[in-house]
Amino acid sequence: MSRRLVLVLLTLGVFMATLLSSTLAYTGGWSDGDEDYNCGGSCHVGPTNHGTGTIVVSADKESVITGQFVVVTVNVTETQLGDNSRIGVFLLRSLTGQDDTPSMDGWQVLQDPKGGSYNYVEKTSPGSGETVAFSYTLRAPATPGDYTLYARVHHGSTARNALWEDSTAFVLPVTPIPPGVPTIDHTPVSVAFVGRGILIQAWVVNATTGVFLHWKHTEETEFSSVEMTNTSETSDGAFRYEATIPAMSEETQVHYYLVATRDTLYTDTATFTMTLILEPEKPNMLAWGLQIIIILEAIAIGAYLSIRLSGVKRRAGEEE
Predict the structure, then answer these.
(1) Which CATH number fits domain 183-277: 2.120.10.30, 2.60.40.10, 3.40.190.10, 3.40.50.2000?
(2) pLDDT in tens, 132-160
(3) 183-277 shares the fold of 49-175
(4) For 112-120, what is the mean pLDDT?
(5) 317: pLDDT strictly greater than 80
(6) Class of the CATH domain delimited by 49-175
């Protein structure tokens, strides 16, 4: 095989690898993720100017029992936004610059403000002076104690310089589970498909008088309810319960929560948000494969003809 053909094939391989990676890469600049105060020394390092925004951190409970659910909300009001009105919020356990994520204290982000499970999320502000809410649904640590949370905000000023603000410390007590109170371990469903029933599952302890699923879509005012079925499957003393939210015919958002009861005692989860989307069509892999083959053949033929033509020219030059 000639050196030129090897070079052509190598170039072709690099081209195909680049094409494949471009179809998998995330686009749009900075993205949501699990990030320390300084993003581990990368993307968000640099804001040295302190902004004039207002940050208020709150929770939907004064305290939370170990392993259960609480919603922490960060309300951000900015006046220095510039052309790029994107605002990024870190939910943190400290402001040291490393090992800052709440998971280091045992918190688990079940749903971030955009339905994911990250401690750093970006949103677009509706405008200068407007308040943007970032709500995080968390599962509390397994160890009781008083836990501190912070919010750090990054955004752009009117001069397009990166600015930052930090919230004051927000202390949230985590208390032991009272004797006999039911507990719920549930991973929320954030995305589901239009036209399909939505299976909701949870592992529950001490729910001797039933576990209930409540749901509604965004346009409804009242929650529908159904008692969840005990599947008799057990794990570490917990039983697996399940129920299905009926299929819906259009794209919307569904809000749901669970309640586990033991006579007069009960535990409920936070209200989770699920987005219904159209099910994507399966790609026609045969057609895609044929297109790739045709492209490869065309490139190979072009390379072969180029090499042949080069050889003809070289021999013609030698004959002269």
Answers:
(1) 2.60.40.10
(2) 999 999 999 999 999 999 999 887 766 65
(3) yes
(4) 93
(5) no
(6) mainly beta
What are the helix and strand counts (H, E) for the chain? Answer: 2, 21
Q: Sort strands 49-50 and 162-166 into parallel, antiparallel or unpaired.
A: parallel
Dihedral angle of Cα 113, 261, 174, 256, to the nearest 10 degrees: 0
pLDDT at 111 over 80: yes
User: Can you tell me the distance from the alpha carbon of 15 to that of 23, in angstroms, rounded to the nearest whole number?
Assistant: 13
Question: Angle, nearest 10°, between helix axes 285-319 and 3-24?
Answer: 150
Domain boundaries in the chain?
A: 49-175, 183-277
Round to whole Å and give the CA distance between 295 and 304.
14
| Residue type at position 199 | L
Instruction: Give the per-residue pLDDT at 248.
Output: 94
